[in-house]
Design brief:
The chain has 158 residues and is an alpha+beta fold. 50% of the residues lie in helices and 16% in strands. Strands 1-3-4-2 form a four-stranded mixed β-sheet, sandwiched between helices. The longest helix is centred in the N-terminal third of the chain and has 17 residues. The radius of gyration is 15 Å and the shape is globular.
Length: 158
């Protein structure tokens, strides 16, 4: 148990330390963009198919993670940039609600298809490690900004 807790704290520290940007206090008046549900479902299927090809179990959908992924996409759209702002708050909230041991996320922007985002993550060693990690649950949010750019957030936890 002590080793698991140390591992979880270490993973969380690495994820926070490697974040692309500083933590920020979220704005309260962030508009909600519409979800691209078909792309979300396709991307979750592609990730699970990839995991299965490696002998890893499929990730189960998490409504808790989906809510946080949606909120993060709305936040990124409001900022007009790809980021991991407020990841610690998301991870803590998910952990509190689900008793998750550790949480990770992948984000992407400007890919017109689920396969495009997946291939980008697959080509990145850090993103690939997350998709292939020892996780049990996930949720994918894909939203489009007013200019037509897609934003992706996929949260993972165990």
């Amino acid at each position: 148990m002590k080793m698991r807790l140390l591992y979880a704290v270490s993973v969380l520290f690495v994820l926070v330390a490697s974040s692309c940007s500083k933590e920020a206090i979220p704005d309260t008046d962030i508009p909600n963009a519409e979800n691209a549900v078909q792309i979300e479902q396709e991307l979750m299927g592609i990730v699970n198919t990839h995991r299965a090809s490696l002998g890893f179990p499929a990730l189960q959908f998490s409504a808790v993670a989906y809510e946080h992924a949606n909120n993060h996409n709305d936040y990124m759209i409001s900022k007009g940039s790809l980021n991991h702002d407020n990841f610690t708050a998301r991870a803590t909230s998910i952990s509190s609600a689900t008793s998750a041991e550790y949480v990770a996320e992948n984000v992407a922007k400007d890919y017109d298809s689920a396969n495009g985002a997946f291939e980008n993550w697959l080509a990145s060693s850090d993103h690939r490690k997350t998709m292939e990690g020892d996780f049990t649950h996930t949720a994918v949010s894909v939203k489009k900004d007013p200019a037509g750019n897609f934003y992706y957030t996929q949260l993972f936890y165990r």
